[in-house]
Structure formats: C-alpha cells, structure tokens
Design brief:
Length: 411
Amino acid sequence: MEYSNASLIMFYVLLFVILTIETQSIEGGKANTSEKEDRELTKQLRILNKKPIKIITTKFGDTIDCIDIYKQPAFDHPLLKDHKIQMVPSSISEETTSKNISSTIFRGSNIDTGFQNERCPPETVPMRRTRKQDLINARYLMQKTNSIHTNYYTLSPMNYHFVSVEEFSEGKKYFGSAAWMSVHGFELNYEQFSTAQIWVQNGPAEKINSIEFGWMIYPGLFGDTHTRVFAYWTADGYKQTGCFNTYCPGFVQVSRDLYIGARINPVSVYGKNPMALPFKVYRDLKTGNWWLIINDITVGYWPKEIFTHLADNALTVRYGGIAGNEPQSPAPPMGNRYLPQLQDYSKTAFMTRMMYVDEKGKIVNINPDNIQTKRNTTLDSYDILFAGNIGGEYDITMAFGGPGVYVSLEH
C-alpha cells in the first residue's frame, strides 16, 4: 500500500489549512470576499441550508434544521440527480452492536444531540446549519490545493501527527470496518485538533477515495471543545470533492435521531471504567452505498455514485488518530492525553473489537498476525501499541495517544 502514507499526509495538510482559516475567523481575522464571491457564497448557503420544516436550538447552542428528507442537500450533488434514496440498509451485521455487549471492563457512552424533548418530524432529518464562514473556509481550501501539490506548505512533524495500525495484505478487499473506540475529552485551543478515527480507502494517493469517521475535538470546526462525532469523505485525493460532515452535497442523512457533529457524553475519566462507542461503516451488498452506523443508530450513507475507487470495495482499513496544530502553537494531546500502555485500559485510549466486513457482508476480526503500525512522530509525544487478540471482552485491541506538548487552558 505505497499510497497510504501519502494520502495521510495530504489529509493532514488539508486539516491544517481549514484549521488556520477557522482560527482567523474566530479570533478576529476576516477573509476578504468580492461582491461576486459573496453572491456565490449566498447561493451555496441556499443549497446547503434548505428551508426547514422545523428549527431546533440545542441546549449547546447549535442550530439544527429539520429538512425534508427528499430535499436534503445531498441530492444537489450532480451525480445524485437521479438517485433513489435508500431508507434502510439491506442487511446489518449485529456483531458489534451494543445490544450484544455486556462488559464489566468498559461502559457504553451516548450521543447527546441536545434536542432535550424535541425531535424532527417524520420524513425530515436533522442537519446542523452551515455558516457563511464555513463556506469561506472551504473556498480557501480549494484555492490552496494546487499549492499543496507543489509543496507550498512545508510539512513538519510538529504540525501533523498521526499513529495508526492496519492489516498488511496485498490485494485483500474490504467492504467495511468497525471498532469500539474509547471516548475522551480535553480542552484545546482554536488552532488545535485531535481525532480518534477509522479510515476506509482505495485508489492511488493523487486520486484516493476515502471515508473517515470517529470522534473529534476541533474548536475551529465546531466552535467549542466538546468531543463530537465527525465524518469526512473525498473521491479525488482531497482536491475538489468531499468535506467534513455535511458541509457539501454527498452524504445522505436518514436518521431523525442523530446528526453528524453531535456531542458525545459522557466521556472517560482517567483510572475509572472507560466509556466507549461502537463505530462502523460498511458497503451495502445490494446497492453499493456505504452506511455509517454509530452506537446502533443508522445515521445515513455515502452513495456509490459519488466514488470511483470506492464504488466496489476498499483496499485499506486503518485505525488510529490524528493530532494537529498551527505552527508556533503547542502540539495537542491525542487519545486520552497519556502515552499508551497495555496493562490498565482505564488509563489509556484504545480501540477494541477491531473488525472488517468481508465480501459476503460478514464482519470478522482483522488478522492480528499481519499488522503493521505507522507513525510520523516521536515516541515521547504520541505512540501506538498493538495488543492483538487479548480475548475476553476485548478481542483485537490496540492502544494509542499521547500528551503532545500539552498546555493547560485553566490558567
């Protein structure tokens, strides 16, 4: 998989560009836009922010629009004009659902939408409202794409940090990936981000198709330091296609109960029973759509039509995390802020029950004898340890994370 590291690096660069622009907008900077660009942004906002049937203001201050499920922004994608919405998956493997977990080692966390006693009406779906500044950031990101390919941005290990594990099996095809992720929380500055995530990928680096999902702390994207669900997709090596969450047409939302960007609560407390959530993406055997399932909730799917190399299968699934920061600012924590260890799972960030979906739609353990770990950082900042199949309630497990150069925000 020679393209794997290159695709990771491209992802980190794009994250950093978004991060930089968000920091400018939040801390007082303002991107200059012409009248023509303002008109274009207004047009895009109309596409993304459809007229809501109902508006919900969450207890966290997010504005959630309840949109007609048949008129959601996904269907403005040029490749989805004739797409017929799929309301439910053709089949769902039950192996990783929380209904089958009776763990004395870790407890299941929850998704807190902040809806309180409200809910979107039938045949509508909740969507976090897109701001004009989000589109300005996305536009700026696209302008910098060509510069990135000519090394306009100099990569530095102090800016982009990742750790991951993956199966090394040349030519093996994957049709999905799943794991329970321990969930953690900590404060970050606006110029920092941190994730725990799974990658599902196929294609050469310059044209890679990628679906990425898990949890993220990203003040520049969400406006706060809460731990939130996130997803990302691209169909052309992070160039002109794809986005975080639902910031562009592509992802089809079907759930009335959960939206991408929702807060995860409670999170783990160091030394106590860890909190964890199951995440899964898999390709529908009948339609070829890629479904996102979080904590037993079928959130929605990425349609087959928007992909090229992922239209049929993936060739890489990866488990790990990313931490990033603007130059001259501290490298943020990853995982639970501590270096990983395999003796006490209440004191480390981990992923467990690491599985993939095979060509028959069956979800099975990854092969613990054919694993490689990857990192682009010093071991005293971040690390990843693969434990293998430790049996009991964990099965295939790894631990990851680290302190970075952590600076408390309490003072």
